[in-house]
Amino acid sequence: MIDEEYRGAKQWSRDKQAVFTVIWISFLSAAVATMIFFAVFDPVELGGMLDEDLNFSRDAGYAAGFFFFWVLCALCAGVTAFLVRTAPKRDAKHRPK
Amino acid sequence: MNKPESAGMYASAEKIYPREIGGRFDKLSKLATTILLGLFYAAPWLLWDGRQAFLFDLPARKFHLLGLTLWPQDFPYLALLLIIAALSLFFFTALAGRLWCGFACPQTVWTEAFIWMEQFTEGTRSQRMKLDKAPWSITKFRKKASKQFLWITFSMWTGFTFVGYFTPVRELGIDILELSVGGSTLFWGLFYGFATYGNAGYMREQVCKYMCPYARFQSAMFDKDTLIISYDEKRGEPRGSRKRSVDPKEAGLGDCIDCQLCVQVCPTGIDIREGLQYECIACAACIDACDSIMDKMNYPRGLVRYTTEHSLKNETTRVLRPRMFVYATLLLILVSGLVIAMTSRTPVILDVIRDRNSLYREIADNFVENIYTLKIINQSNDARSFVVTVSGLENVVLDGVDGEVRVDGGGVLSLPVRVRARRDDAYGVNEILFSVVATDDSSVVMAEDSRFIGPMR
Question: How many CB pairs below 8 Å do chains A and B form together?
Answer without folding.
Answer: 76
